[in-house]
Amino acid sequence: MWRLELDNGVTLIAKVPYRPARPGERASIEAKFYSEMREHRGLPIPRFIAEHEGTLVLEYLELSPFSFKRGPSEAHMSVAIDALADWHAAFWQNPPDWPWLPDFADPEFRRATEKNYDQAWTAHRNRLVELLPEFADLGDGLVGRLATTLEPLADSSTLCHGDAHAENISLASSGAYLLDWQDPQIANPGCDLAVFTTMSLPTGKRRELEQDLVDRHASRMAASGCHWPDPWQGYRLGVLRRAARIVEIASEEFSSLPWVFRRSAQAALDHDVSDLIQ
Q1: What is the SS3 assignment for 109?
Q2: What sign does the CA torsion over 252, 254, 258, 261 have?
Q3: Are 230 and 188 in contact (CB under 8 A)?
Q4: Do 96 and 158 contact (CB within 8 A), yes or no?
Q5: What pLDDT, on the 0 to 100 scale, is given for residue 241?
Q6: Close Cβ partners of 202 (under 8 Å, ≥ 6 residues apart)
Q7: What distance in Å separates the CA atoms of residue 157 and residue 187, rounded to the nearest whole number?
Q8: Residues 193-232: pLDDT tens digits?
Q9: CA distance 273 to 103
Q10: 67-276: which CATH number, 3.20.20.70, 3.90.1200.10, 3.40.47.10, 3.30.70.270?
Q11: How far apart are CA 170 and CA 167, in angstroms?
Q12: Whole-model pTM?
């Protein structure tokens, strides 16, 4: 990422894709997202300037630093959850019709997700079980069943961020901004909430705060006229999806895998999501 200071005093950011791509990096998806969103004004995302061969140029934002070890402050959590709820409300039951956008209503996308999970779990089961032995039965139970299990994520759908942890919902002087759009998808809001809680908060803090955060999000959406029928069940399913997603990317060998997997897998165990498997 490069900061560009122009002669006219304007500052921009250039996001240049890594060669080869880093684990989880999908620069081409982010470029498509910003290109599609250029006509949407007033939403909490950086303003799109240009794109060329995968390099994105966006407006520069002075953002507050974030530490995964410490987690977000109370103020950060409140503003981030409100921003996420407002985003979900803006696309509630009416997400964009972009042909490249993954959608949990699409059986082919769910089958591809199941295939990716099954292959990753088979290849990396021993290593992941060493990190959290209690996850073994749940991990085994998802094999061959993820496509059907995730189908309810198509209910109460909206445009989700896909990686909405606190570093990607950053604070600027003008409010919260949603950044790093490399994994957008049409899904239940519970998917984004599960990423926020399991990735942003240490396990003990997540257990303490998650009910209040889900309630705050649902209340904020309701105030915008959006009725989310069962937020807690949607959140539980999002927790299951997040744990499965971390298994899927285990083969990418990123250094943060141990703590990322432990947080997401422990959340799935805490919520006893085995009853959601179909």
Answers
A1: helix
A2: negative
A3: no
A4: no
A5: 98
A6: 71, 263
A7: 5
A8: 999 999 999 999 999 999 999 999 999 999 999 999 999 9
A9: 22
A10: 3.90.1200.10
A11: 6
A12: 0.93
